[in-house]
Automatic annotation (TrEMBL):
Record's subcellular location: Cytoplasm
Record function comment: Catalyzes the NADPH-dependent reduction of 7-cyano-7-deazaguanine (preQ0) to 7-aminomethyl-7-deazaguanine (preQ1).
Molecular functions per Gene Ontology: preQ1 synthase activity
Classification of source organism: Bacteria, Pseudomonadati, Pseudomonadota, Alphaproteobacteria, Hyphomicrobiales
Protein name: NADPH-dependent 7-cyano-7-deazaguanine reductase
Organism: Bauldia litoralis
Keywords attached to this entry: Cytoplasm, NADP, Oxidoreductase, Queuosine biosynthesis
Main subcellular localisation: cytoplasm
Length: 150
């Protein structure tokens, strides 16, 4: 899924859907250290595959890198490509986590998808690759259970 020509430093349109998006990776300059990188995407949008209505949520991605880091511009473009993509919350969340794992082969990754109510019910989706490294500082994702998310 990595592109041959990195997207950083050049104009790149938002891909029409995840199948046409690419994720880029860059070498981890601190591969000898255990640390957590966090990406928060507070305006994630996808389309309900049944009704065609937009769904909104917050995605939080935590990972312990190994040899590679995800390049943030490509991640933003990849996540934005879901705006016109019809998929359930569970599919979006797990597919995004799996794509990053396939690209980076991190020591550990978890993703939380915190979606606004659809039909009066919020749906939160969580996926991780296994237990985190014992020496990693893993903080709570800090997004409260639904009460207006405020």
């Amino acid at each position: 899924m990595a592109s041959k020509k990195p997207q950083l430093g050049r104009s790149v349109p938002i891909p029409p859907d995840p199948e046409h998006a690419t994720l880029d990776r860059v070498p981890n300059p601190h591969a000898d250290k255990t640390y957590v990188a966090r990406f928060t995407f507070p305006e994630f949008t996808s389309i309900c595959p049944v009704t065609g209505q937009p769904d909104f949520g917050i995605l939080m991605i935590d990972y312990v890198p190994d040899k590679w880091l995800v390049e943030s511009k490509s991640l933003k473009l990849y996540l934005q490509s879901f705006r016109n993509h019809g998929a359930f919350h569970e599919d979006c969340t797990v597919a995004i986590g799996a794509a990053i794992v396939d690209l980076l082969k991190p020591q550990w990754l978890r993703i939380g998808g915190y979606f606004n109510p659809r039909g009066g019910m919020p749906i939160d989706v969580f996926w991780q690759t296994g237990a985190p490294p014992a020496d990693a500082w893993i903080t709570d994702q800090g997004i409260p259970p639904y009460r207006g998310r405020g």
